[in-house]
Amino acid sequence: MSSTATPQRPLVRAIQVIGALLVLLWVVEIVDVLTGHALDNFGIVPRRLGSLAHIATAPLLHFGWAHLIANSVPFFALGVIVYLDGVGRWVITTLTVVVTSGLLVWLMSPSGSITAGASGVVFGWLAYVLVRGFFTRRIGQILLAVLILAVYGGVLWGILPMTAGVSWQAHLGGAIGGVIAAWLLNGRRPTS
């Protein structure tokens, strides 16, 4: 007897993957609370060499439930949209925004601060979705960008140093990474 796996629909798979990552963020916050916020030490400390590795861990951490809740809906919505572009593109985009966001935090945040949270990734995914249509010239992506801009456009003010305790550096770095990823994945046209 032979069985063939039925391919999963892309939207279902995107919801499962991004949903699982969101559950991971919540589990990490539960562990953080249970350990007296010991995991917060794995956030990014500017210009400390040992903290460069925390660029990979900081997006998984949040400074309390309100911080995590604020990131959860846009993380899920934008993560699913980017994932629908393909797993490889999602991985490249996510890695690019994590690195650019983390490096900008590491280079530019105030001394003695600790930065953590998924908002750099959220801003990166947002920027990717907003600009990829510019490179692809696909009407569906452009219309989606207009819709996303209408829904989430107001958060773009977060790339400016306007609110104490909010890492505009992470937001700006993520947005830069999203634009870079959109260009890398969609902007290069073969020359003939």
Q: Please tally the helical runs, counting DSSP H or I stretches of 4 or more residues.
A: 7
Query: Would you tell me the structural class of the helices and strands?
Result: mainly alpha
Tell me about the biggest sheet?
Answer: none
Low-confidence stretches: none
Distance between the termini: 51 Å
Features:
7 helices, mainly alpha, 64% helix, 192 residues
Describe this structure in words.
- It is a single chain.
- The chain has seven helices and no strands.
- With about 190 residues, it is mostly helical.
- The N and C termini lie far apart (about 50 Å).
Question: Brief description of this entry?
Answer:
The protein has 192 residues and is mainly α.
Strand and helix map with partners:
Blueprint: H1 10-34, H2 54-57, H3 65-83, H4 87-108, H5 119-136, H6 139-152, H7 168-187
Helix pairs in contact: 1-3, 3-5, 4-5, 4-7, 5-6, 5-7
